[in-house]
Design goal:
- With 287 residues, this protein is of the alpha/beta class.
- It has 2 domains: 148 residues, Glutaredoxin, CATH 3.40.30; 131 residues, 3-Layer(aba) Sandwich (Glutaredoxin), CATH 3.40.30.
- It has 11 helices and 10 strands.
- It is elongated.
- The termini are far apart.
Length: 287
Amino acid sequence: MAGVMKNILLILAVGWLRLQSVAAGETGWLTVLDQPVAKAQANNKFILLFFTGSDWCGWCKKFDQEVLSTPEFRNYAEKNLVLVEIDFPKQTPQSDAIKKANAAWQERFKVTGFPTLILLDSHCNALGRQDGYAAGEAKAFTAELEQWKARAVPRDQTAANGLQWLTDLPQAQARARNENKLVLLDFTGSDWCGWCQKLDEDTFSQPEFAEYARKNLVLVQLDYPRQKPQPDALKRANAALEEKYGVDGFPTLIAMKPDGTVVWKQDGYVKGGPPVLIAQLDAARKK
């Protein structure tokens, strides 16, 4: 009898998960268990996270009614977004798997109130964030999403291991603030500096560093090439940062908090590969 009851409970649990998935699909909103990242990558779309308390949060319901449920927003989303609802209801039943997954995403993005909306690229980098209700119609919100989308890193700035190197420090600081990460600056001469190229080969290109960086860092490459063309604006910005941080050789690495506080600086090549650099950055993160 115990075995029969166990099987019945298992069948009911599986059925409940399927019902939740079907319901999400019918409204266009997925759950975090529906592989939204894979869907975004397969369809070249962005990911919109909607942290909500669907059966109790009045401001969540109001924003949903005024913006997210409108035909204008749904038309926009169909072309541009993978929609993910991360719900924290008080009455509506949820499976333990959904509760656990939602809590993990809430912790990951440091969500402390509802509604919170976060736009991600297909590598789960945060591009923009709205904490709380914002008045306005769908047109205003989609215009805001377009501005956030413009922060996405172009594909030619994505390394072979999937890491994205920004070139705009303020943008990197904003992303680090959203994701609670350190900013790592790499001052390099990518097309002439042998030690820079060796650091890239020995450390930055290694899977161990890539895994660590995705969880803990926003990467910024400040390049001073001799052959590669650069826009004048980028040259001026890089020159100003070189002077500001007292860089007099390459490579130079600087780790900073999102507010710009420098917590670590390395002049020259880092021997020892990913383990040594990761240990130094972990120590810097604790400062």
